[in-house]
Design a protein that fits this description.
single chain; 90 residues; 41% helix; 4-stranded antiparallel beta sheet
Length: 90
């Protein structure tokens, strides 16, 4: 089974093979995790602490992660320094 793993604390990986469409499952997981990045972002990660800057950060994380994460072995480091990867699990 392929999973999206967020390498922080004890987070549970997102299972990606439970759905018929791997790409849709991955896109949904990336969007969910982008929300977490935005909620954790501070002044070091934002030009200003405004909704507009947070929205831009969210869009950028989604674009960058979507480009970087396509198959098992791919990884991505988000702007707050957390590594994401697609892994194969038994």
């Amino acid at each position: 089974m392929r999973v999206l793993r967020i390498h922080v604390h004890e987070s549970e990986p997102y299972p990606l093979d439970l759905f018929d469409d791997f790409e849709t499952a991955l896109a949904d997981a990336i969007e969910d995790e982008a929300d977490n990045v935005v909620s954790e972002a501070n002044a070091d990660h934002l030009e200003e602490n405004t909704d507009e800057c947070r929205d831009l950060l969210r869009k950028q994380v989604i674009e960058d992660a979507s480009r970087a994460l396509r198959e098992v072995g791919d990884s991505f480091t988000d702007p707050i320094g957390v590594v994401w990867s697609i892994e194969e699990r038994p």
